[in-house]
């Protein structure tokens, strides 16, 4: 168990900057998720913590000790790989005991430690099997077992669930969280799946093009995305963005069909920046069907229904507004509006996000 | 068109297979029959069926197995082939592994080409230079001389083949071992090598077979002490002609070990010979 401190860590491959100035301090036992589209540098960052990749600049400390230049063994970290990376020529026991044997622990102790870890993961009955005789879920458990058996100071998990089918993935997700809480080991978890990131992380680091975009608790990322990328990346379906004009009284409008009123605090900020145009962001789930047209004329959007996708308990509706605006609404009930019909949607003022079109930063 | 009829096609396939089998097996049959003949009988036309055409005898076998030089050649062959295989594998596999896994100041590709260039050259070209070198090193007619020579021929082959086999070992698996605390040598020894076992065995057999079969250099560089079986068989020509009966016995003795060996490792051969072509 240890605090991990990364300070201005960078990685350069020739002319390509894979990771730039990555700075993050974990608390002890924290579950940190690195999330972002592929090629954003999240896996490289993890490999630098593991010691599989040398860093170009910056410093990494684990438990207060500078580990730059140390081989993986000296860092005392364990890693779970995307493709499990089990040793195919060893049985499950051999896989789990590998690191302990290299450390020349007494045989009896190795046996005890492996058995204890196997019991935690429910794979005691598989100890004599070879990896190729196991299902994907079982292999994943063995890979986790190999990681926890050494009681390392840091867990590193590189998309460990991406090769498992959807149903099992939800189960394993919960299991990993429980395991991590129980062991209290500081964990870095890499994923490209924002749902996984939000549901697992104590803190989530959103990355793009080698740079950290935002670090925060899942709720924080969802409620207060720092820029347009984070706003669009976190949440599913993705946030709707509409380019709109701002007038002095705090209304933003895009054509005749969209006219929204900002809360006073935002009106003030926009006014201070002197912006004529902004990006307006509205999450699909914040769009509600306006049934009583006369009641509130505020923040109403009239859209033409294009596609209706029933999702079981919810419904996704794709609408077109005006000539060139497309919106997606996630309605929290079963509805079936006719394609082509006009639907009135409303959004609460405090659910509206505003971004500076020049910098894409949140206002 | 025989392809139109399935049965006709089968007949043709079998016919070709039978012809091929005869082509391959006839020399063996010749060796077996002649090994049970007297020297005179080997020159009798049509002496093919034992007891009917000629009286089989174990004389040739007794002669060969009772001849110290013949037994000595067998032992030389075994020692030289085993020694070469050992030396080539011990030097070649780590070299192949480093070529497969690490970047070198020169492009790895070029190194491989340089290794391969060894194979392209006709061996006879270097026969005389090697003879001179061996004389200078006082390695004429020694096992050490032949082992060193055969190793230079086979090392390049082993390195290039094993490099491709090591490349097929998953990098992630090796990284997992590294994270678990293995150093480079341990990764090579405990992960890469066991996972490349079939390729390793096939390479070893090919190297062994080459050294076992090599006759040209063995004839030139040995005379008595280190003469291998192929060299000894070539020397079956006496002043009276060729002793076909004893040559046949020696041939059978020479063929036996590699054949027996391939039987034992057949399951590796099937997979190993396809090398990197089919992912296991």
Can you characterise this structure?
The complex is a heterodimer of chains A (363) and B (280). Chain A is an alpha+beta fold and 363 residues long. Chain A contains ten helices and 20 strands. Chain A has helices spanning 42-50, 72-75, 92-102, 107-121, 136-148, 166-183, 194-200, 218-223, 228-233, 264-273; strands at 4-13, 16-25, 31-35, 57-62, 65-66, 77-80, 154-158, 186-191, 203-208, 211-216, 240-246, 251-254, 258-261, 277-282, 288-289, 300-310, 315-321, 325-331, 342-346, 353-355. In chain A, the strands form four sheets. Chain A has a six-stranded mixed beta sheet with strand order 6-7-8-3-9-10, sandwiched between helices. Chain A has a five-stranded antiparallel beta sheet with strand order 13-12-11-14-20. The longest helix of chain A is centred in the middle third of the chain and has 18 residues, at 166-183. Chain A is elongated and about 75 Å long. The mean pLDDT of chain A is 90. Chain B is an all-alpha fold. Chain B has helices at residues 6-35, 39-42, 59-66, 68-101, 108-120, 127-136, 143-167, 171-179, 184-195, 197-213, 216-221, 229-234, 244-264, 266-272; strands spanning 237-238, 241-242. Chain B has a two-stranded antiparallel ribbon with strand order 1-2. In chain B, β1 (237-238) and β2 form a beta hairpin. The longest helix of chain B has 34 residues, at 68-101. The A-B interface holds A 50-52, 71-73, 77-79, 81-83, 85-89, 98-99, 102-103, 146, 150 and B 170, 172-173, 175-183, 186, 191, 194-195.
CA(first)-CA(last) distance of chain A: 39 Å
- The computed structural class of chain B is mainly alpha
> Biggest sheet of chain B: strands side by side, in what order?
1-2
The percentage helix of chain A is 25-40%
Strand order of the largest sheet of chain A: 6-7-8-3-9-10
Report the portion of residues of chain A in β strands.
25-35%
What is the makeup of the main sheet of chain A? 6 strands, mixed
**Based on DSSP secondary structure assignment, what is the total number of beta strands of chain B?**
2
Chain pair with largest interface: A-B, 23 and 16 residues
Overall geometric form of chain B: globular
Q: What is the number of beta strands of chain A?
A: 20
| C-alpha-based Rg of chain A, rounded | 25 Å
Residue share in β-strands of chain B: under 5%
Encode the helix/strand succession of chain B as letters: HHHHHHHHHHHHEEHH
Q: What is the quaternary state of this protein?
A: heterodimer
> Main β-sheet of chain B: number of strands, strand sense, barrel status?
2 strands, antiparallel
Cα-atom Rg of chain B, whole angstroms?
A: 23 Å
The outline of chain A comes out as elongated
Low-confidence stretches of chain B: 275-280
């Amino acid at each position: 168990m240890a605090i991990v401190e990364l300070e201005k860590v960078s990685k350069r491959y020739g002319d390509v900057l894979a990771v730039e100035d990555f700075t993050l301090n974990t608390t002890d036992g924290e579950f940190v998720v690195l999330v972002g589209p592929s090629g954003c540098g999240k896996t490289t960052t993890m490999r630098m913590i593991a010691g599989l990749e040398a860093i170009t600049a910056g410093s990494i400390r684990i438990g207060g000790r500078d580990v730059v230049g140390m081989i993986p063994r000296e860092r005392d970290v364990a890693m779970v790989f995307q493709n499990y990376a089990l040793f195919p020529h060893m049985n499950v026991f051999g896989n789990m005991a590998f690191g302990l044997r290299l450390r020349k622990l007494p045989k009896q102790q190795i046996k005890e430690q492996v058995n204890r870890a196997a019991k935690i993961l429910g794979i005691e009955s598989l100890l004599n099997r070879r990896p190729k005789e196991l299902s994907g879920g079982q292999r994943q458990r063995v890979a986790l077992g190999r990681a926890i058996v050494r009681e390392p100071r840091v867990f590193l998990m590189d998309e460990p669930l991406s090769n498992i089918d959807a149903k099992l993935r939800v189960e394993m997700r919960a299991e990993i969280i429980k395991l991590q809480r129980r062991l209290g080991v500081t964990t870095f978890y890499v994923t490209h799946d924002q749902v996984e990131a939000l549901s697992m992380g104590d803190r989530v680091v959103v990355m793009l093009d080698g740079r950290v975009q935002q670090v925060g608790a899942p709720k924080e990322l969802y409620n207060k995305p720092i820029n347009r990328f984070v706003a669009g990346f976190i949440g599913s379906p993705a946030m709707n963005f509409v380019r709109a004009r701002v007038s002095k009284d705090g209304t933003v409008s895009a054509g005749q069909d969209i006219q929204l009123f900002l809360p006073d605090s935002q009106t003030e900020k926009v006014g201070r920046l002197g912006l004529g145009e902004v990006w307006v962001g509205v999450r699909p789930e914040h769009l509600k069907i306006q049934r009583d047209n006369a009641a509130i004329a505020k923040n109403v959007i009239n859209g033409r229904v294009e596609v209706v996708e029933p999702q079981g308990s919810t419904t996704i509706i794709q609408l077109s507004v005006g000539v060139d605006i497309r919106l997606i609404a996630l309605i929290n009930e079963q509805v079936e509006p006719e394609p082509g019909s006009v639907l009135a949607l409303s959004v609460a003022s405090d659910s509206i996000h505003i971004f500076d079109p020049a910098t894409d930063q949140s206002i | 068109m025989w392809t139109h009829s399935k049965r006709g096609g089968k007949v043709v396939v079998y016919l070709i297979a039978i012809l091929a089998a005869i082509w391959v097996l006839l020399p063996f049959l010749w060796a077996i029959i002649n090994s049970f003949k007297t020297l005179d009988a080997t020159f009798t036309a049509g002496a093919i069926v034992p007891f009917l055409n000629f009286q089989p005898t174990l004389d040739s076998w007794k002669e060969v197995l009772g001849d110290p030089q013949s037994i000595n050649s067998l032992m030389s062959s075994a020692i030289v082939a085993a020694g070469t295989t050992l030396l080539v594998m011990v030097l070649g596999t780590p070299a192949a592994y480093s070529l497969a896994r690490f970047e070198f100041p020169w492009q790895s590709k070029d190194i491989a080409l340089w290794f391969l260039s060894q194979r392209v050259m006709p061996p006879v070209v270097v026969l005389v230079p090697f003879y001179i070198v061996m004389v200078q090193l006082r390695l004429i007619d020694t096992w050490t001389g032949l082992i060193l020579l055969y190793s230079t021929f086979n090392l390049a082959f082993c390195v290039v083949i094993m490099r491709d086999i090591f490349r097929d070992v998953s990098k992630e698996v090796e990284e997992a071992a590294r994270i678990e605390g293995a150093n480079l040598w341990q990764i090579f020894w405990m992960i890469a090598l066991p996972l490349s076992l079939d390729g390793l065995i096939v390479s070893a057999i090919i190297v062994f077979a080459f050294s076992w079969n090599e006759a040209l250099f063995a004839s030139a560089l040995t005379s008595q002490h280190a003469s291998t079986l192929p060299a000894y068989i070539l020397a079956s020509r006496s002043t009276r002609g060729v002793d076909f009966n004893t040559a046949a016995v020696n041939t059978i003795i020479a063929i036996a070990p590699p054949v027996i060996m391939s039987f034992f490792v057949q399951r590796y051969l099937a997979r190993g010979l396809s090398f990197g072509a089919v992912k296991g």
